[in-house]
Amino acid sequence: MELYACGTAAVPPDQAKSLVSDLEHRIIPTDLREFGHPRNFRKVVVLLSPLDSMTLGYFDENDILPSDPAHSNHANVIYVRPPYLMPDVSEMADVEEAAAHELQHLINFRIRVLDRHLPPQESWLNEGLAFYAQMANGFWTQRDVLKVKAAASDPGWSINSLVEGDRFLVRHARVAYGRAGLFVCDLVRRYGSSIARAVIRSPGSGLEEIDRALRARRPSASVRSAFAQWGADLVTSGATPQRWVGRLGLQHIQQASLVSAVTIRSDAPPWSSPSLRVRPWSQSFVTLRSSGSGALRVTLKTKSSSLFVALVATSSEDLARPRIAWFRPNVKGIAGAQIGNFGETYDSATLAASNAPALGSNQVPALFMASASVTPSGERQPTGH
Fold this sequence. Notes:
Blueprint: E1 2-5, H1 13-35, E2 44-48, E3 57-59, E4 76-80, H2 91-115, H3 123-136, H4 142-153, H5 166-191, H6 194-201, H7 207-217, H8 223-233, H9 251-257, E5 260-264, E6 271-272, E7 276-278, E8 282-290, E9 294-302, E10 307-315, E11 318-326, E12 334-342, E13 348-355, E14 366-376
Helix pairs in contact: 1-2, 2-3, 3-5, 4-5, 4-9, 6-7
């Protein structure tokens, strides 16, 4: 690889040497391993350059497939801010993380567009894969913390709604990048890094790419079921990419994800929710707690075939061992689930509702209502819905 600096972006020799070493021996090999090796892939050029107020790095497709030859470098070039212009104290980590991120975009474009003659990948999925590139390389900067916190605090954000452009990104970049990135990380956590390579090579666009890649691996798998499972994972350890980052505490993220919390009393009438609305490709969470102990029974009512809902019971002392029950509505759209030892073994239970419409269908919000009650231990359980 080659490293250049533009104008005032020059760096001291020791920083330049360290950066070249990390790129050559760690970052470039890692990205090629995780995302695939494009045909005729030669050296990578990293250009350190002052960039605008939001941009830490970028990749220009015109350098690979020139639509404007006069302004193309005709090479594998990625552009990154120099260390002294990075926003965090860990300025070298910011530079290297941005390089790992942009290198994914470069590899992705070469494989899809040049090698396989496929359309460029949808922005949200491309950015989600680039977020995973950061995790795969072992980075975890303050920028990542902010994205994950934003994603955790807004589970109602549709993962595929990212729009390129300064006006959108100024307001929504953190949540859009965070939600897409965490979903891709959860896919890799479940299916291994080969799923990232398969998605890049898959025909179609966005969600369809993921669906094709999953079904090729396992006929019963789908992007809809994977998204619903991620919804359940978000209640527990799936809220962070902790396979790669072990030092991030879950508490602030998990609590931010739980958009409403309800305490169920065994000596009071059953709790009933208002009608709850879930946008396409987003989630909604309701956490239930009890003032006593006993059996928790939850009834769900919905007419939305795109809605997947899990009841995730957890103990604050052991988030890694949840009990998960999936609601399976009958022909009337009613389903029930029950958790024993509620208030003892499990101190909370969360309704994780994910709206994953069939691909090609109308992408409309899903509606549901829920009711819950706790029967004290030893009392007879009610039957029916």
